[in-house]
Amino acid sequence: MSTDDKADNKLQDLGGKAKEKVGGATGDDELKNQGKADQGKADLKQAGEKVKDAFKH
């Protein structure tokens, strides 16, 4: 997995966590759900990168 991909995935995950917290604090369920979705996307990308790495070795 490239360092850039890893960093991008981490940023997306952190952004999702921030959205989820802000949405929860403000009562904005849509923003909260977007944050959860962003975290899920980041997790899927991370898993895909790990699979790629497994086949490289």
Automatic annotation (TrEMBL):
Domain of life: Bacteria
Residue stretches of biased makeup (Basic and acidic residues): 1-22, 29-57
CsbD-like domain segment(s): 5-57
InterPro entries the UniProt entry points to: CsbD (IPR008462), YjbJ_sf (IPR036629)
SUPFAM superfamilies per UniProt: Hypothetical protein YjbJ
Pfam family, one: CsbD
Residue ranges, annotated region (Disordered): 1-57
Stretches of the chain forming a coiled coil according to its record: none
Family under the similarity heading: Belongs to the UPF0337 (CsbD) family.
Record's protein name: Uncharacterized protein YjbJ (UPF0337 family)
Organism of provenance: Nocardioides perillae
